[in-house]
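Before the break, one more example. Copy the sequence into your notebook; we will annotate it together after we see the structure.
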Amino acid sequence: MKISQQLVALVGAFTLACTCAVAQTPAQDSPAVPASAIIAAPEPLPIVDPAKELKGATLIRELRKGGFVLYMRHTEAGSPTEKCDQNSLSATGLENARIVGSAIRDLNIPVGAVRSSSPCRTNITATSLGLGVVEITEDLNPIAPMPGIDLGAARTARLNEAPLAGTNTLLVSHLHGSRNKDEWIHLGLGEIIVFRPVAGARAEPVARIAVVKWQRLRVEMAAADKR
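Here is what the structure looks like once it is written out:
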């Protein structure tokens, strides 16, 4: 009996010692991954050329002059409804649309035409911005109304359509893919891509403004206006 107890004690002590040794030994099969080996997520298309990008107070000053097309993805959708009303957006969606619209007004960015695709989530986003009468256009729809219509070409033409003098055009639409990768538009909910129309060529993206960036732009512009 005593021998058995001693044997159990010895086995327990040996097991504990082995466990501690393993715990104190660095893992050999999970080496640290060098930073150079980490692959960053690709930038969403279209990519803004750093040489042409507008930022901070410079971006707002340029927008105040007009001449740009602001392409916005709708904010967060709500539950499907039979008619287009505020329930077409979630509470967060409504709040974010109002944040964007309020910032554009407070920063004195002139908006002329406001256009939206047909789905409720987009035209309610556009209406909730409070920036004027919303024109519904199928050119911004995610799906062509009938075969043979090239929505990519129609959307590209809208992006390159010069606004009325002294104003900017606001388009509210969706994520868009295409067989032509140059026509892809990928952006976050409520995000705006600022395009500069170019005669005889494709409109150039010069800035991306996520919903959370508007407050920072307010601060930067307020500081710049005091100088």
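The mean pLDDT is 85. The chain is about 35% helix and 15% strand. Try to locate both features in your own notes.
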